[in-house]
Design brief:
The chain has a domain at about 65-110. The termini are far apart. The protein has four helices and six strands. It is an alpha+beta fold. Helix content is about 30%, strand content about 10%. The longest helix has 15 residues, at about 100-110. Strands 1-2 form a two-stranded antiparallel sheet. Strands 3-4 form a two-stranded antiparallel sheet.
Length: about 120
């Protein structure tokens, strides 16, 4: 009869499957490295330098003022596109043609990735 070795307790890294003698070593084995970055508000591209992000899309229009009510609307709002297409925002005048409504909603989706109904 052969003598078997004693079983030992080890911890396995779930990313690389390396065995460790200590639980904390296994937890810290393949932690992803985190780095700081700056994001351009227009195209959402990440940059390692703040100035690079600030100058990434200098011609991008990130806000617009409604000529009727003088409210400021950011790029991620439906009213931003409403002012550009219809000449007024959804706050001061919610009346749009069907073509305008579809264009506003389509541009909003293309810029934000979020589908929103103009009258919801």
């Amino acid at each position: 009869m052969s003598k078997k070795g004693e079983v030992t307790l080890k911890w396995e890294c779930s990313a690389c499957n390396e065995l460790h003698d200590w639980e904390d070593d296994a937890k810290q084995c393949c932690q992803p490295e985190v780095s700081e970055c700056w994001v351009c508000p227009a195209c959402e591209q990440a940059h390692s330098d703040k100035k690079d992000a600030e100058h990434c899309c200098p011609d991008a229009e990130l806000a617009v003022t409604c000529p009727s009510c003088l409210r400021e609307h950011d790029l991620d709002e439906l009213s931003f596109h409403a002012v550009r297409i219809a000449g007024h925002c959804t706050e001061c005048n919610p009346m749009f043609t069907v073509d305008q409504q579809m264009a506003i909603q389509d541009l909003h989706y293309l810029n934000t990735g979020k589908s929103r109904n103009l009258f919801a």
